[in-house]
């Protein structure tokens, strides 16, 4: 598809604008000259409530919608609360997407996750491996909700000609993450654990699982840039992967975080905690083929995220 620039005056509604992903998208859109980027906190507009979503759209009348609203969490939160991860995500995305259709939204970007792909998908994971095998059990509820979202977006394209798209980011990190040890993803959890251990001079840090699963990490500033790029350069059904094209073992990631935080003690692996999927490296050739690539290296990204953590969380 040739480039179709969005008007910088368009009303862009970023659902989930206060979260890790949504806040990065808002920053990027404003930096790129968008003058009418809107969002609402969940206390103001509960996306699980269809009437609240209808009233919000009546008020702001967006022409572009980015759906970065989701109940998210790390491996433990996903495996302990499958009902909430399924029900809340289905409700939020259903209300948003149906309402976007009623209000004739021109461009909509639905964000999913690399966990939609089969647990043992061929690596790197191509978009066409969707629904070709069993899902990873620790996050199947979340994955099914996200697969339903992709299907809904595609259904609107097929039945009503909507130029709406779905992007599947790999594991994400960046400023504004959730650092709660029970609910968070691995990177913020390790940052918090290693920081405390370095400051309090502990001799050991416990890392969950065997340390051998491999994960790919994308900084949310890169994801935000990819989202705008896709809205202006992509118009196809099905998911498109967004990643960096490289992954690391969890033990290697833990060592990078240890080095950044100044922790010099021992890493202990708690194998009573789940490993999750052994590997989920995305094939990003569809995206890079369109002319986009990530710019933030994992070491720079972890360093700057740790600086943000020190300024905003550790001190709090
Ligand atoms: O980031 P994470 O929670 O999610 O865990 P997933 C990745 C890997 O890091 C797993 C290990 O092998 C964990 O066992 N790990 C080591 C830790 N130490 C820790 C720790 O202190 N905290 C955490 N959280 N993990 C999630 C899905 O899967 O990824 C979601 O559950 C979503 O649905 C998200 O797709 C991107 O990569 O395993």
UniProtKB/TrEMBL annotation:
GO terms for biological process: 'de novo' GDP-L-fucose biosynthetic process. GO terms for molecular function: GDP-L-fucose synthase activity; isomerase activity; NADP+ binding. It comes from the Bacteria. Residues 12-243 form the NAD-dependent epimerase/dehydratase domain. NADP(+) binds at residues 16-22, 111-114, 146, 169-172, 185. Keywords: Isomerase, Multifunctional enzyme, NADP, Oxidoreductase. Substrate binds at residues 193, 208, 215, 275. The keyword rRNA-binding does not apply. Its EC number is 1.1.1.271. Pathway: Nucleotide-sugar biosynthesis; GDP-L-fucose biosynthesis via de novo pathway; GDP-L-fucose from GDP-alpha-D-mannose: step 2/2. It is an enzyme of class 1 (oxidoreductase). Belongs to the NAD(P)-dependent epimerase/dehydratase family. Fucose synthase subfamily. Catalyzes the two-step NADP-dependent conversion of GDP-4-dehydro-6-deoxy-D-mannose to GDP-fucose, involving an epimerase and a reductase reaction. This is GDP-L-fucose synthase.
